[in-house]
Design a protein that fits this description.
Elements lengths: L8 H23 L2 H17 L9 H46 L8 H13 L3 H11 L5 H8 L3 H18 L1 H16 L1
Helix pairs in contact: 1-2, 1-3, 2-3, 4-7, 5-7, 6-7
Length: 192
C-alpha cells in the first residue's frame, strides 16, 4: 500500500481477502460465538467501505483492529445489559407467580369476584321475560320445587323447567369468562 493513498476498491478487496479470518478470530476471542464474530467483522468492513475516502490506506489495519475491538466490546455490553434485563424480568415474573400462588391459597373461590358476578347476573336477569324471571327466583332464591312453582304460578311443570333452563343458559353465557376462572381457582385450591 502506498503512503497517503486513500482506500481503493482493489485495496479494500485485498484487505478483506487477506485479513477477514484474522479479524473474525479476534472478534471470536471477544464474543465467543463464530456467527456473531462473522457478523461483527462484516459490519466493520462495511463501515470501512463507507469511510474509504477519509481513511489513508496505510492506517486501514489499525482502523479495522480498533473498529472490530470496539464493536465486540459494544456487543458484550449490550449482551450483558440484555441478560440483566432478562434476569430482572424473570425475577419479577417469579415474584408475581409467588404472589399469585399465595393469593390463590388465601382466597375462597366463592368470594372471588362476587360483586362483579352479581352485577352481571342482575343485568342478565333484567333482560329475561318476567315469567321466566319469577320461576327462576322462586326456585333459586325461595327454594321452591318446580312442582310448587307450577302450582303457585298456575302453569305447567314442563313450562317451569323450560323457563328456568332458559335463564340458566343466559346466565352461563353472561358469566362464561368468570366460570372458567372460578373452576381453575377451585382446582388449584384443592391441589394445595
Amino acid at each position: 500500500m502506498l503512503r497517503d493513498e486513500t482506500l481503493s476498491k482493489k485495496l479494500y478487496e485485498d484487505l478483506f481477502k487477506e485479513n477477514r479470518e484474522i479479524f473474525e478470530f479476534l472478534a471470536y476471542s471477544y464474543v465467543g460465538d463464530h456467527e456473531q464474530a462473522r457478523d461483527i467483522v462484516s459490519d466493520c468492513f462495511a463501515k470501512l467501505w463507507e469511510k474509504r475516502d477519509s481513511i489513508i490506506s496505510e492506517s486501514v489495519l489499525a482502523y479495522m483492529y480498533k473498529t472490530v475491538k470496539n464493536a465486540c466490546l459494544d456487543y458484550r455490553k449490550s449482551a450483558r445489559h440484555n441478560n440483566e434485563i432478562r434476569e430482572s424480568l424473570l425475577n419479577k415474573e417469579g415474584e408475581l407467580m409467588e404472589l399469585f400462588t399465595e393469593t390463590i391459597q388465601n382466597t375462597d373461590p366463592s368470594e372471588l369476584f362476587t360483586e362483579d358476578i352479581l352485577a352481571i347476573a342482575r343485568e342478565s336477569l333484567k333482560k329475561v321475560p318476567d315469567e321466566q324471571k319469577q320461576a327462576f327466583l322462586k326456585n333459586r332464591v325461595e327454594g321452591l320445587s318446580y312442582e310448587e312453582i307450577a302450582q303457585a304460578m298456575g302453569i305447567q311443570y314442563s313450562r317451569v323447567a323450560k323457563d328456568i333452563h332458559a335463564v340458566l343458559k343466559r346466565l352461563r353465557i353472561s358469566l362464561k369468562d368468570y366460570l372458567s376462572l372460578i373452576i381453575l381457582i377451585t382446582l388449584l385450591k384443592e391441589l394445595n
